[in-house]
Amino acid sequence: MSTRQLISALACALCALGALASAQTESKPQPPASAQGEIKGRIISDDGQPLAGAQIYTRSLRNQYAGAVSDADGKFTLPNLERGTYTVNAYAPGYYDTANLQQERALRSYYHPGDSVTVRMGKGGVITGRVRDTSGGPLIAMRVRVIRLRDEAGRAPAEPVFVFGPPEVNTDDRGVYRIYGLPPGTYIVVAGGQSRNGFSNRPTAYDNDAPTFYPSTTRDGAAEVVVQSGQEATDIDIRYRGEAGHAASGTVETAGAALSDSDSVSLQIMTAGSLYMAGYRYLSGRESDRSFVFDGLADGDYDVIAEQYGKGSVRTTAASLRVSVRGADVPGLKLTLAPLAAITGRVVLETAPPTASWKEQCQSKLDAVAGETTIIARREQDKRAGAAYPGGAKLADVAPDDKNEFALRGLAPGRFRLDVRPPGPDWYIRTAALAAPTPAATNNAAAKTSAPARAANHPLTDGLTLAAGAQINDLTLTFAPGAAALHGRVITASEGAPLPDLQIYLVPAEPARADDALSYRSARVGNDGTFAFTQLAPGRYHLLTRPAQPRESNAADALASPYPDAQTRAQLRRDAEPTETLELQPCQRLTDHVLRLAPKN
Amino acid sequence: MRRLKQHRPLTVSPTARAQNMYSTAMLRATQTQTRRHVIRALLIIACALAPLTYTSAQTPAKEPKDTGVIAGRITREGHAVADVLVTLMPGDWSAQQKPVAKTTSDADGRYRLANVPPGRYYLNPFAPAYVVSDINPADWRPGRMLNVAAGDKLEGLDFTLTRGGVITGRVTNADGKPVVETMVRVMAADEADRKKPQYSVAKFAFQTDDRGVYRLYGLSVGRYLVYIGESPEDGMVRVGGAGSYPRTFYGNTSDIAQAKPVEVTTGEEATAIDIVVGKPAQSYAVAGRVVDERGQPVTGASIVYGPINAEGRFVGSFGADGSKTNERGEFRLRGLSPNRYGLWAMEGQAFGGEQSANYSSAAAVEIIEQDVSGIEIKLTRGATLSGIVTVEGTTNPTVLAKLAELRLGANTRGQTGLAPPAFGNAKVNADGTFTLTGLRPGKTNLSLGWPQVKGFSLVRVQRDNLDQLEGIDIAAGERVTGVRVIVAYGASTVRGQVQFPNGQRPVGGHVHVEAHRVGTPVGTGNGSAEIDALGRFVLENLSAGEYELLLFADYPAFGTEQRKPPVDRKVVNVPETGDVQVTLVFKQEPGQ
Q: H-type helices in B350-440, by residue range?
């Protein structure tokens, strides 16, 4: 479990930073001189006890890193932080960071200096057992890995997770393995197979074998192991089959310019449509040999994904290929790296009128800087069957630089949702606009043909479809101060009646805002009837509910857009017309608003 | 019939076991003739069927003359051990991390790797719970190092296996809570030399688990000191994060003299080797700023640091936490354990390998019981040195085309006090021109930088047509031009044999040979090679000329520069092409 450790070797430290920095913009000049702040917090275990000695890592979206260690009360301080947007993660051996799990579901939290953070760490579960050969003898120094298929609520991760991936251990001289610190969920266990680190300078007798899944089967027949927080799943014994695997080999090629020294290429082979990474390779830019071999593959379909990293650990090009292994080696694969997509633009922060009296109502001094904004791009799951899983970032986050510009680079082709977080609680997003694309900016045919459609679609409410290598430029996001918030509860018409599963909507009441897509909001009502809307444009709103769509069994509902689409907006507008309105003043925090459902008749 | 001690008896039929033989790494000593025939027959079939077996365990009818053969026998207590995987790993660190060849021992314990291309390799049987003769499992790449030449028949490379011992126990803190994910290490409890640092001899598992339990296996017979935690003498750099535990030995003491040794005997378990640790060592922060010559803040610089000794020399590894100085030039490094450190600044990414126009001062810091602030690191615009690289004695366009792959490094001597090591190097352009920047004043030696390009060696450096044997004198901020760097491209090989006293190569130590052109300083990069398990060495890609070979008994400790004198030296004349044979004698100095 070396990756979980505090890394002391320099090379490893750089690798780790590179890996963490995978979704970043290019390095940009520093922000203008500004006061530094700190993020304070507390680490507690899920039973509410403080955790001492936990390691806390913070990363700014401009690639500044800092760390801290929690004290005896679980408290920590990350001091001297530049203004900007930060993520906070914690590590304590044997525990898991619930924020990491949210990250797994692409629901990362972002913080600003001045914020207080409570990091909840769960006591990890354990999977332990023995690996034996078919005659019952212990197999020693055998790699064992677990793959988390679903969380405790039965949701599969939106994307395969690599950096925070499953731990890998070796059996001891008795054939015993023990994997701990596991977040609750449903797992499969695999013995043998390739190291997830991509190499081992200590070859074992199992390196060319196809892996054996618990109890003694292939990936398809793998038995699931349910892990509960802090509990042990024991006797997860694997009878190792030791079947010969096959090799898939080939080369990585560049379509245009040659790779430079600062470039590197990472290669993964994933079981198609699955979360099992059957192999990983890293080709450094200094190696002229661009060939790869993945050994020990069982029969089945795989996706080989190559991603090239350039300066600043930004993905620049990628390629992927579906490979079918059927009882023989598959040589001669050719992956041709092609450019990845990018979204660039700028952020505008409007200023409040100097005479505005409402400023006193605000929580903050309204002195936010653009760098405190967060722009997140998430790729929607591609449900088409048969297509190889593409290379490139499926999740990227960025904060604007000191010129208020941002760039989300290295994006995989596909449909992306933008999640835009205003720079503070008193700010809301007023407009999101794309300039008409210039012919030079769209360097491929697919991007050109989608241009007219883009103009009609709203970049935030409808998402952005990126063709391979597409460059979407000049996305302007305008934020205004004076955001309001509305918290409340939905109650049934008759007391005690069960509350249906509801979606709640805010619909702007002023005719002038009827076509303002960002003034419409959607949220799911909690089981207890509560709802919350924050960072709203001030104004008059209708509030209405609709029966909610059934929850999907994956992360999709957790990532649902807060903005209704055009069709829903039109319908909401009509439905809202006869209902009452409520008015939200700038910086007003309206709490305890009660919405009583109309009696059914 | 006899077999290795198993944790549970085997009751399967011979056929069932034989079918499984390729899928397990269990060690079996087979004694009966019938069994041997059955297995040999199956082995032939398996070899024919298995494309993954690179070289057959059977002797091929013809052996190509341009490759070598490695063969031997694996035994345990004098008996053959079958089914042991034997791998041959490449000796070059940059090569693919996979075996060049592998095979499995036959029923008589014999293995044979044929068609081995000439080169340097590590030969290692896979027997993780066993102690393998003459192999130090703690080596970065364990195995017997071998130089294989065309036509070599390296037979009799036998291995004996001994079931290793086990040390197991639990690590807890003063409150009785498990200490999770801490490294457990052992060092030989050598009464005579208890201070000699040694690395873990554990092979695979050496961390405590979530219960604080550890289990070290495959240990050779002996007495060990078991410990966790770190000592400032380790020279390790922690990049941020939690304070580590101070070094605590079994016996719950930080004093090595008080540590309780653990006796390990063949195949036995030493259990309940429990360690109770105190509080983790507090860690501290160092803050300061980076300024330029005019005292203006430098933004975006990385701070690199490493432990230094009382004499102000770097004594271990270097670290950087990935953060950069802010717009006021300020930095803050966290998580440093009490120790002496040297700090310096690198513009941009730490160890990015890029040249800078400036050189950095180094600041010495001693952390005792509190944070340190107010450290100032200065970047000064350095001198530049430009010129041209020429290749001596060749007009071969393929060789000349490789000029652009070369990199030149500069090392300046004669500084007083703490100086950061030189990391940046300059790319040589296709026409041979180069410019080194950011050089500090002093005597500067040029060398071929990393990555080395095979075949090239530095012959001499000239300024104004004069050889600069002692280095080039560079004044502060000087712009030195017109420097000629003469390199040679060679394809000759020196093959050597080292004669050891009593014919025994010392186990565990690293014996290596270094070559330098007569008239150039030692260590200017004409090559060095490790002496292999058979006492042989190969120095390749040398160009014609006179070289001195120096035989060293061990590498100097990192950062000390104080190495023991060579145990032998010899001057050889390397021709334009072809091989030279040389014999060196490992002279044990009296009293050593």
A: 397-401
A86: which 2 tokens? Answer: 């930060």
Measure CB to CB from residue B218 to each of A10, A173, A329 and give the nearest one: A173
Q: Which two tokens stand for residue A405?
A: 């510009």
Contact A444, A256 (CB under 8 A): no
pTM here is: 0.80
| Residue A13 in this model has a pLDDT that exceeds 60 | no
Q: Which residue from A minimizes the CA distance to B141?
A: A201
List the structure tokens of B520.
Answer: 């150039």
What's the CA gap between B148 and B66, in Å, rounded? 10
Nearest CB partner across the interface for A203, out of B8, B99, B299: B99
Indicate the residue of B20, B129, B334 with minimum beta-carbon distance to A134: B20
Lowest mean pLDDT among A164-178, A435-449, A454-468: A435-449
pLDDT at A600: 64
Least confident of A223-227, A280-284, A520-524, B173-177: A280-284
Strands (E), A65-215: 65-69, 75-81, 86-91, 95-97, 116-123, 125-132, 143-151, 168-170, 176-182, 185-191, 212-213
Q: Is the pLDDT of residue B55 over 60?
A: no
The single residue listed with the structure tokens 């390296």 is: B154
Examine the pLDDT at A142 and tell me if it is beyond 50: yes
DSSP string, A10-56: HHHHHHHHHHHTTTPPPP-PPPPS---EEEEEEEEETTS-B-TT-EE
Buried b (16+ CB within 10 A) or exposed e, B511-538: bbbbbbbeebeeebbbbbbebbbbbbbb
* Number of other CB atoms surrounding residue A87 within 10 Å: 18
Indicate the average pLDDT of chain B. Answer: 79
Count how many residues are written for chain A. Answer: 601
Element (H or E) spanning A573, and its range?
helix A566-576
- H or E element that contains B147: strand B144-148
How far apart are the C-alpha atoms of B450 and B459, rounded to whole Å? 17
| Separation in Å, CA of A277 to nearest CA in chain B | 19
**Average pLDDT for A2-24:** 32
Q: How many other CB atoms are there within 10 angstroms of residue B309's CB atom?
A: 16
DSSP assignment of B10-39:
----HHHHHHTGGG----B----HHHHHHH
CB A57 within 8 A of CB A91: yes
Pairing of strands A300-309, A315-325: antiparallel
Residue type, A559: L
Q: Does the pLDDT of residue A434 top 60, yes or no?
A: yes
Give the pLDDT band of residue B63 (cuts 50, 70, 90): low
Q: How far apart are CA B543 and CA B389, in angstroms?
A: 16
Point out which residues pair with B28 in neighbouring strands: B82
Interface A:B, Cβ pairs < 8 A: 187
- Looking at this protein, which amino acid is placed at residue B507? V
How many of the other CB atoms lie within 10 Å of CB of B308? 23
The answer to whether B240 contacts chain A (CB < 8 Å) is: yes
Tens digit of pLDDT for each residue in A517-568?
999 999 999 889 999 999 999 999 999 999 988 765 444 555 678 899 888 9
Asked if residue B143 lies in contact with residue B530, where contact means CB atoms within 8 angstroms, the answer is no
B334, containing H or E segment: strand B330-336
Q: Residues of A with CB below 8 A from B23's CB?
A: 133-134, 209, 240-243
Q: Which residues of A touch B29 (CB under 8 A)?
A: none
Query: What ipTM does the predicted assembly reach?
Result: 0.81
For residue A262, list its beta bridge partners: none
Express each pLDDT in B502-516 by its tens digit. 777 765 567 889 888
Q: Which residue has the higher pLDDT, A424 or A283?
A: A424
Bridge partners (DSSP) listed for residue B18: none
pLDDT digits (tens, 9 = 90+) for B403-413: 888 989 888 87
Alpha carbon distance A61, A586 (integer Å): 29
Residue A265 has pLDDT above 80, yes or no: yes
Q: Strand, coil or helix: what is A422?
A: coil
